[in-house]
Design a protein that fits this description.
The protein is built from 5 helices and 2 strands, in the order H-E-H-H-E-H-H. With 102 residues, the protein is mainly α.
Length: 102
Amino acid sequence: MKTYKKIYSVVRKIPKGKVATYGQIAQMLDLNPRVIGWALNRLVSVKNNRHPVPWQRVVNSKGTISTNRAPNIPLDLQKHLLENEGIKFNDHGKIDLKKYLF
């Protein structure tokens, strides 16, 4: 569980209106990017999260969201949360990482 706590600590540092990639966080912590995804997916499932982690601010290296494939996350929830933070998606569902990358 120490690994997940490290991941959550990094994700908490991503400011509102910015995103990081799974690979970016994985490189910082010397982990496989899939571990980042597993940790964040678990977080979304936890209903009583006392220390909110902005999981929605982590996207894939293409600048798109990957949570639409996760059965426990409502369709387009991540996109909706990011849009509420001022992040814009293009017509192909991509985020401009040059503009929004943390």
